[in-house]
Write the structure tokens for this entry.
Amino acid sequence: MLPAVVKLCCGISYPHLRSMTGLQRTAVAAIGQEITSLQRWGQIQRHMHAGLKYNEPVKEDLLLYVQHGREAMRKALSTLENQDGWKVEITESNGDVICSKVMPGARKVFRLETVLEASVDELYDLLFVRVEEMHQWNPSIQHIKILKHAGADTIITHEVSAETAGNLIGRRDFLSVRHSCKQNSSVYLGGAAIQLESFPPQTGFVRAEDGPTCIIIQTLDTDARRSRFTWLLNMDVKGWLPKSIVNQALPRAQLDFTRHLRRRLAARDALTGLTGSA
């Protein structure tokens, strides 16, 4: 029974698994381990209950959010794994490289690759565990609120972008499922848009949709205090913006994000240095 569940959640069959390499196989193995550790429904309930806030009762539909997050991650990893069609868009002196690919439907997706001066665990903490604090160091975000916990590794969030100078896209809000997966010295953060009847589009905002998207954080073999950071950005901003403007704005938003993240990490280093010298 369990192998069938693994295939259902990961959307693969054995021949596909044999043909996988790199990112997909690693992530699929991690997802399989998650399911193996939660074989019985009672164990699933206890696992979810441990990650829930506000004493929210465990509901079977929370499993659908977990599956939605895993499926988003699988699709995003498949896009990254396919090397065909990628073209370099931007190369920065700090090592940031952004490539793009045109997907079916003529939408562009963007892949940022760089190295960050932080461990895998620290970046996981900043980008997933403490996601509600992201507005404190990223001025492009007004707020992120966790609406639901579907276990320790899957959350439903509402995000509102801030009004910033030079923002070509304008204010947007997002309703998303976010799923995390740890495997050895790597972390995978996947996500996609989701709809909730209890949280319809908000007045005054255009509800954009992201995903399938993912971030991959991997320890550098030469230095565990540094991480290789790969980010697939796949977003439908909605509204009536020309495609040319959107395709300029999205990679720039990725560069802005990594710039703010580096400043956050530099501030940490400065604080650590002051503490150490006291």
Residues 243-277 form the longest helix (35 residues). The two ends are 59 Å apart (CA to CA).
